[in-house]
Structure formats: C-alpha cells, structure tokens
Amino acid sequence: MNSNELRALAAAVVDPCLERPLGAAVTGVALDGSRAVIDVTLGFPVVGYEARLGELLRRELSAGGWSGAVDLRLQARIAAHAVQGTLQPLPGIGNVLAIASGKGGVGKSTTAANLALALAAQGARVGLLDADIYGPSQPLMMGLAGEHPQMTADKKIEPLRAYGVAVMSIGFLIDAAQPMVWRGPMVTQALTQLLGETRWGELDYLIVDMPPGTGDIQLTLAQRVPVSGAIIVTTPQDIALADARKGLMMFRKVAVPVLGIIENMATHICSSCGHEEHVFGVGGGVRMAAEYQVPLLGSLPLDIRIREQTDDGRPTVVAEPEGALAAAYHDVARRAAARLAAGAGTTAFPTLTASDD
After folding, report:
1. C-beta separation of 167 from 137 below 8 A
2. Is 32 within 8 Å of 73 (Cβ atoms)?
3. Residues 6+ apart with CB under 8 A from 151
4. How many CA atoms lie within 13 A of 152 on its CB side?
5. What class does CATH assign to 3-76?
6. 93-341 fold
C-alpha cells in the first residue's frame, strides 16, 4: 500500500467529534518501512485527544488493509468563525461562545465555568465573561471572590486569571452584598463595557455566561455581542425544556448558530450508594435536540461533588481532572468546539405567511 492509498483511507475515517470524515484534515502521510506517520490538523483543541483518535485510525486503517504501525501527529489550528449580522469580531478574540438557558437554576454558570476550564486544559486560549449582571457567580466558582482587577495605563481592565482562564465579572467591581437595581439599558451598557474595555489578550474562545431568560436584556445582548455560536443548557424537566426552546429560538432570530444542547442534571447519583435515578425526567434533551435538529452535546449528572467543588472555587474539571465527571465536561467541550469548527449551525428560519384573518 502506497502513501496515496493510505491517505485516502485515513481521510475516510469519521472523526467522533466532527461526526464526519477527516478529509482535508489529514495534512500528510509518510511511510517508513512498515510504519506510517499521519499528520492530522483539526480546528478544535486536541490536547488529550491523540490517544482516542490514534486508536480509531489504527483500527480503521487495519480494517482497510494496512498491517503496519501507525503514528499520529495531531495538532490544532483554531480559526475565527463568522458572527451574526453586520457585527464585527472583537479584536484578538477568535470566537465568542454564549452559554445560555431559558430559565435560572439549571446549572448554566457551573456548566460555563467547567467548559471554559476544559477548553483551556485541551490547549486553547480561553476567557470567561460573567454576563449575569444581576447574579454574578463566576467570582465564587472560579476561586476569585473578593479580588479586584487592575486598570492599565490606557484605562483598560486587566482580567483576573484562574486555572489558566482570563475571567471578568461585574462581581469584581461591586459589593457582593448589594443588589443590582439597574434597568435593562444600564445592564446592557455595563456588559458592553465589560466586554469591550477588558484587555483580554489573544483568545481562541471567550465563553460568555449569559443571564438566564429570554427577555429584552438577553435579546439585546444577543444582538450586540458578536457571537460565533450558542450553547443551550437545560434540564430534562418539561418546564425547563419549554424555556430552553425559547432561548434556542432567540438565537435563531438573531442568526446566531446554536451549536447544541447540554442536558444538565440528567441523572442523580446518590453519594452514599451510587444509585442512579432520573429525578427530572428522561430523554427531554434528546427530544428537544431532535425537534430543532441540533445535536445533544452531552448529558451531565446531578452530583453533589459538582456543587461542592464550585462552591469551593475549584470547579470539577480542575478539582478532579482525571475523574469521570471531568471527562464528561471535556467531552461536551470538545464536541461543541468541533461543531463550531465544522461550520455547524446553518440557521433555519420559519416560513412567514400573510393572512387576511
């Protein structure tokens, strides 16, 4: 078997995150006797992914007739993707990913923090913006409660850093005990300033922890912030799904691709006996994903350790980096980044018809 034949075999291998053949991602094939060296360049973070993809390549190439050894050389090239409407991408920020929910209490902020940390651990340059002006929680979750950012000489805000992630929140700038009694325009202006006046540096991804809901504030933010893709967080419960559908449709109305749905608290794992049960229902995220033709990026459990770790300022991905819970967050984060890299989310709009009624 020559290198061209081997390259064709490798290009036909379906990447489990992209969910399509590698194709042009196979950038080189070299033969050294009975050993093949295959270069693959993917558009999403790849640290920790080489073993999984390498095993798949070896299995598929063996099935295709290659009997020699296979060495995989894997690298990432993360591109900036288009944003909605006439908005311009933010300088130095490749992609803004909005993490949203139709209602509060579904674990959106916990999910946002762990996704940011997972992408950073996978080799990406990541920032995290806490856009929940009324209830900022990222300072506590990221272990930065009580800290305050510095101003630079050119009047920019220097973000705080935690576990390799640049973090900014209104919670760094106000008294945590004081309620935010601001009207919508003030909230929008505050978020716009936090986003535009923070010295983020060069980022592959800026994760935006959006406020819950689908009201005027959320719609205005979705229209003004240049977003490459959105992720909807929900629980399997019917009432949460009903609100999550509104969130999904909000992003579609402003032409922001929805990368997928995360079903949080899908199962409860008893901390005493390990028994697993579906507290909030079964299959809600799967049904919603099928209804709106977007992928279910993953299902995450309701586990007391997740709550304890975020309350302690060490989210699961850094608290138990080798654990099963962290692996679940890593898988969801990689699938979302791969979905963006694949150019997912061609926005579908409903057909509008006029009626005399």
Report:
1. no
2. no
3. 157, 158
4. 11
5. alpha beta
6. Rossmann fold (3.40.50)
